[in-house]
Recover the amino acids of this structure.
């Protein structure tokens, strides 16, 4: 039989785990939304929109933790490295 303290610890652990899982899912959705936005900006940049080019570069630079994934998925975003 679990004591009240053990039950409280188990509930707290489950709460933390649940919050972490929700946070990870929210981050994944945020990254997807950002990638979609980058696709649009890149398209506008290719069509000559200088503001879109600047915004694209700034957003790309702010997301360093996603660079490896995006390099594989969108090599054309890294044209200056080729």
């Amino acid at each position: 039989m679990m004591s009240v303290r053990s039950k409280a610890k188990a509930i707290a652990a489950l709460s933390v785990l649940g919050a972490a899982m929700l946070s990870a899912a929210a981050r994944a959705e945020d990254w997807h939304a950002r990638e979609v936005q980058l696709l649009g900006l890149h398209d506008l940049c290719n069509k000559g929109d200088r503001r879109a080019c600047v915004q694209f570069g700034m957003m790309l630079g702010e997301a360093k933790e996603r660079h490896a994934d995006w390099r594989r998925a969108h090599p054309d975003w890294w044209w200056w490295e080729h």
